[in-house]
Amino acid sequence: MKKLRHLKAYIVDDDEVELYVIQRIIYLKRLAEKVEVYRSGNELIEALQRTIEPPDYILINYRMSGENGLEILEKIQDLNLNKPESPPFFILTSSTADLSDLDAIMSDKNIDGFLYKPLIAKKLKEQLKSLFS
Amino acid sequence: MTNPKSKISILYVDDEVHNLSAFKASFRRDHDVHLANSANEAFTLLETISPQIIIADQRMPEVTGVEFFERLHAKNPDPIRILLTAYTSSQTVIEAVNKGQIDKYLVKPWNNDLMQSTLQTGFSMYEARVALRVKNEELRRTNSELNRFVYSVSHDLRAPLMSMLGLINLAKLEKEIDSQVQLFELMEKSVIKMDNYIQTTLDYYRNFKSEISIEAVQVEVLINDIIDSLKSYHPKCKINFIHTGAKELYSDRMRLKICLSNIISNAVKYGRKNSDPYEINIQTNLTEEVYSVDVEDFGIGISEAELPKIYDMFYRSPKNKDSKSTGLGLYLVKEAIHRIKGQVTVDSVLGKGTRFKLTIPNQKK
């Protein structure tokens, strides 16, 4: 059992402003100790392959140019990274997302939670607490 | 009397051969006459010809005239359908007319003058029917374009708003003054993005709504104004601008500005490859007849596969991570330049750069 403020988080989004906001909220609300940001699925996969200290959770935006969040998650699982267990995966989605996108996210069994953007610190904290305590 | 200009294409279906030959003898000079001995033969023939008027005898073996028209209507509703009957079975005719498969009805043997005038009015009906269908298709297309437009505009306007909301959420948590200043800068960017989007939407509206108004435009001044408005946002871009020839172009100022500012701002935006300083070139020339504009950048370029799509409404390159794009800019250029009778062409090599050329007629009277 880890304290939230000692966790390590990866954030993936292709929008600089979003990345900045999420990163700061996590830092200010102490929802992780270390935060690393990536701008695409490929950057994330490279980081996961390289790291010797895998993250405790990953926050990834659903809709990005190129692959979407679920496709990236699938790729990560195909690569069998971070055995024995891959880190919890949170999908971030805009509240204006298409219904078909929401359906795809809701019915995906591999994700551990999903959050609407703009990110509200309290919601993320609740989900992290239920996972880590 | 027939109009020699409009030869009507007619298909006549009857099982009685002498009726067919009598019809052909009477009307072949004035019209383009096709004959069929049975409904099946007619359908085979219809695979290769598209007559404007189809005449069918009611009493044929196997398939009646009404049944033939019923099947025809399902396949091709355009041609005018004239039913011929020797006996007046009013019930059959009333039913057929009410079901809408028959446009005209004539009694056999026909009177040549009456047939001729029926063919003429039938042809006018045909033209009206086709015009109506074309108009309907156009309306349907405009309607779906409009729906898409409303969806995209509201969706795209919400994106920077949501981004603002995220920044405000964060601002409430942020205690350090330096971090707050940074937040204000990011909020400013979101507001500019929204404003830019609304401006483009307004241009879209103006281009469609307002009438063309030709006036003398100082083209060199216009381009310098556009360059000035872009400079502050793109300090690393050096814009080389050379104008030769006359000073005043007679054209529609608003649409001219839509074309020039979109093409130039695209060059400034996509001429950038990395964080190094970069240049774009604008060369313009004005004569009595034509204003030619050549805008060249050495930036990211456009792939061959994407080139045909760049003028489509709401098309955004999937490779373009710049979410500032509205997907409307080049669509507007295409629409606006069409209104001022000009043309736009593009040459581009992926990774090397892009060159847009505009030619706009000088409409000095």
Automatic annotation (TrEMBL), chain A:
The keyword Phosphoprotein applies. Keywords: Phosphoprotein. It holds the Pfam family Response_reg. PROSITE patterns: RESPONSE_REGULATORY. Residues 8-132 form the Response regulatory domain. InterPro entries: Bact_response_regulator, CheY-like_superfamily, Sig_transdc_resp-reg_receiver. One of its GO terms (biological process) is phosphorelay signal transduction system. PANTHER family: RESPONSE REGULATORY DOMAIN-CONTAINING PROTEIN, STRESS RESPONSE REGULATOR PROTEIN 1. This is Response regulator. It comes from Cryomorpha ignava. The lineage of its organism: Bacteria, Pseudomonadati, Bacteroidota, Flavobacteriia, Flavobacteriales.
UniProtKB/TrEMBL annotation, chain B:
Residues 152-364 form the Histidine kinase domain. Residues 9-123 form the Response regulatory domain. Keywords: Kinase, Phosphoprotein, Transferase. One of its GO terms (molecular function) is phosphorelay sensor kinase activity. Its EC number is 2.7.13.3. Pfam families: HATPase_c, HisKA, Response_reg. SUPFAM superfamilies: ATPase domain of HSP90 chaperone/DNA topoisomerase II/histidine kinase, CheY-like, Homodimeric domain of signal transducing histidine kinase. It catalyses: ATP + protein L-histidine = ADP + protein N-phospho-L-histidine. The modification 4-aspartylphosphate is found at residue 57. Transmembrane segments: none annotated. This is histidine kinase.
